[in-house]
Design goal:
The chain is of the alpha+beta class. It has 18 helices and 23 strands. A seven-stranded antiparallel sheet has the order 1-7-8-9-14-11-12, with no helix packed on it. Strands 16-17-21-20-18-23 form a six-stranded mixed beta barrel. The longest helix is centred in the first third of the chain and has 22 residues, at about 15-35. It comes from Paenibacillus nuruki.
Length: about 650
């Protein structure tokens, strides 16, 4: 048996629009920002004077490191990664839409990176420019391997898209440099980076090149993490530098870095949320590529804790601004949380790598939840404004005046001092075609995880097969899949049943299919012929979701969802003081698609009631016999992803329920 996915073209109106927005708006816009040519305001992610936010300077840093310019490094120590993620987004964009001018621009960036790379393969503009003597000596905060990982990912994507060998050569030289410096030999550093990323990049480089050393180096970094809890402290004590690489990092506990225990002993998701899911993404890939069952079991354990006890209904993760981190089970505050865009993107990476190991619908459900809500919510509809933090409740005056909520923005800034999220989102959207299917070659099974209109070309037992998926999701729940082939071919098509559809109907050439799902997928194993048509109907019911009773922030509240979207209420539609709005027990919901609103969105209307602020409350803060009267109000809800695209105001996902 043999099964290969050859190509996939997304034509879905919803997602094609986003991918075109990346190509025509985000990539040029971000290029101007990286070159300090954009006339924009760069904001700090929160109230912290140490955050560099005058400019990006990222391309200029490479020119200085390459010897083409004189000057000092500016920006975070990980500023290089902004360029690398931009390059990766360009790579995927070029695979979708040929663009000679853009490719020449990217080739020029690769030439510049090659000039900045040192003779032994080392690549990092901060240390090359400012402190070459501290290379690999402050790994808790240096982000050297993090940046290296992002370049390797970009180089792999760029080679696959354009066959540019120069980028791949730089990546291999960089990986070889790291391989020389890290390991268990006496002359090597027995340690790891403070921010996971190199681990998942090395698995991609191994998959492309077949070089076993890269897979083993990834396994080494993963298994080494947390085995010596004195590593970072010993490096700190031995460091002769006169300044911190990143201010304010010395107080971070080992949990912040997922370095408090060996990874297979870690029972709960701890620390910086992005780091955790990047680590898990690598673990899942190593489990698959190396046949490491213990690693896979460790992934399952951390996945279960995240999804069952530490994830927001929007697919966001990270409950506190302090360390951008997880806190404890069921601690999910709505107005002080973090829910970084990058963290949800990392959760998507983790979910997809788990799907490659085992097709279980829970992974695809979470992937879909994070994609349709927090991920795309991290960008404005114009492609030029971005959220770092994705709150579930916003009161603008609180963000303005409460230092503990300075990270909770009520409108998307043009750019950030720490600009990891915008280019991360760009590379996700341009690589979206990679997340629709996984294949199980030994059983000739094609697993369908996401529903969006597209055409894919496969080769099954040496026979070309085309699958055309047509759907009006995310707004309506009809999906059809039509086969095209010259010769009848046997294979299994497995269709996910999403969590938001309690009932469904499935027809093959007009005849009902009645078979029990396996791990959330309906498996159809048959000899397929040209023009076979599979029709899946998913009811798009409006649902009220309640949180676990131990989620204190959501007691007595509900969240509204329809299909993959979670909905929210905005002040622009419903007036101020949204905390006074209350849904009742007998209300009915009405769905309407509004072509004129926010580029065309489905809205939900419901009759609710809003508590009045009676005259008796004038100059009274507390009362023992407070009157409670209500006024009926027509509440309008919009999908969470498109909030904050009109005017400044309050927003709430979780609504009071009588």
């Amino acid at each position: 048996m043999s099964l290969q996915l050859k190509s996939l073209t997304i034509t879905d109106p919803f997602w094609a629009h986003y991918r075109e927005l990346v190509r025509t708006e985000m990539i040029p816009y971000q290029w101007n920002v990286l070159n300090d040519n954009a006339n924009i305001t760069i904001e700090k992610e929160r109230n912290d004077n140490s955050i560099p936010s005058e400019k990006s300077h990222a391309i200029e840093n490479f020119k200085i490191a390459a010897g083409l310019k004189q000057g000092n490094h500016y920006g975070w120590v990980f500023q290089d990664s902004d360029v690398y993620k931009w390059l990766e987004a360009v790579a995927y964009s070029l695979s979708i839409h040929a663009d000679t001018e853009l490719q020449e621009l990217a080739d020029g960036v690769i030439d510049l990176i090659a000039l900045a790379q040192e003779e032994d393969g080392y690549l990092n503009t901060y240390f090359s420019i400012e402190e070459p003597e501290r290379r690999f000596k402050k790994l808790a905060e240096s982000h050297e391997l993090y940046c290296a990982g992002h370049f390797i990912e970009a180089a792999v994507a760029y080679y696959e898209s354009t066959h540019n060998e120069k980028a791949l050569t730089i990546a291999c030289r960089l990986a070889d440099c790291i391989d020389v410096h890290f390991g268990k030999e006496e002359h090597q550093i027995q340690g790891y980076d403070g921010h996971e990323e190199i681990e998942l990049a090395l698995t991609k480089l191994y998959s492309l090149t077949g070089e076993q050393r890269y897979l083993e180096l990834s396994r080494y970094f993963l298994y080494e993490r947390g085995t010596d809890t004195t590593f970072f402290a010993r490096q700190q004590a031995a460091d002769n530098g006169h300044k911190a690489v990143i201010e304010g990092m010395n107080h971070r506990p080992l949990e912040y870095y997922q370095a408090h225990q060996p990874i297979l002993e870690q029972q709960t998701a701890e620390g910086h949320a992005v780091r955790l899911v990047y680590m898990c993404t690598a673990m899942a890939d190593v489990a698959l590529l190396a046949g490491d069952t213990a690693m896979l079991e460790g992934c399952r354990r951390l996945w279960k804790n995240i999804i069952n006890k530490r994830m927001y209904i929007t697919g966001g993760i990270g409950s506190t601004v302090d360390g951008e981190a997880f806190t404890l089970d069921y601690d999910l505050p709505n107005d002080t949380m973090y829910c970084e865009t990058c963290a949800s993107i990392g959760l998507i990476f983790f979910a997809f790598n788990m799907l490659k190991n085992e097709a279980r619908s829970e992974y695809a459900d979470v992937l879909e939840r994070a994609l349709y809500n927090t991920a795309i919510g991290g960008m404005a509809l114009d492609g030029k404004h971005f959220f770092y933090v994705n709150p579930l409740e916003v009161h603008p005056e609180s963000s303005r005046h409460d230092p503990g909520k300075s990270h909770v923005k009520f409108t998307r800034p043009e750019w950030f001092g720490c600009a990891c999220c915008p280019p991360n989102l760009a590379r996700l959207l341009t690589s979206l075609h990679k997340y629709i299917y996984t294949i199980q070659a030994d059983t000739n099974t094609i697993y369908t995880h996401l529903f969006m209109t597209h055409t894919t070309e496969l080769e099954i037992n040496d026979h070309p097969v085309q699958l055309e998926q047509i759907t009006n999701l995310p707004w309506e729940g009809d999906v059809s899949i039509v086969t095209q082939m010259k010769q009848s071919t046997s294979f299994t098509l497995a269709i996910r049943l999403p969590y938001w559809a309690e009932h469904y109907s499935l027809l093959l050439n007009g005849n009902p299919i009645d078979t029990d799902p396996i791990n959330g997928y309906i498996h159809i194993d048959r000899i397929w012929r040209s023009n076979d048509k599979l029709e899946l109907k998913l009811p798009m019911e409006i649902k009220e979701y309640t949180a676990h009773p131990l989620v204190r922030a959501d007691t007595g509240k509900v969240a509204i969802g329809r299909g993959p979207f979670i909905y929210c209420a905005e002040e622009v539609d419903n007036g101020e003081h949204l905390h006074l709005v209350q849904l009742t027990q007998d209300q009915t919901y009405e769905y309407e698609f509004d072509e004129q609103l926010l580029g065309g969105v489905g809205t939900i209307k419901v009759e609710a009631r809003k508590r009045n602020i009676e005259p008796e409350w004038e100059d009274v803060l507390y009362a023992s016999k407070a009157p409670q009267t209500y006024t009926s109000t027509a509440l309008r809800l919009i999908p969470y992803y498109c909030w904050a695209n009109r005017q400044i105001g309050e927003m709430r996902v979780w609504l009071n329920k009588a």
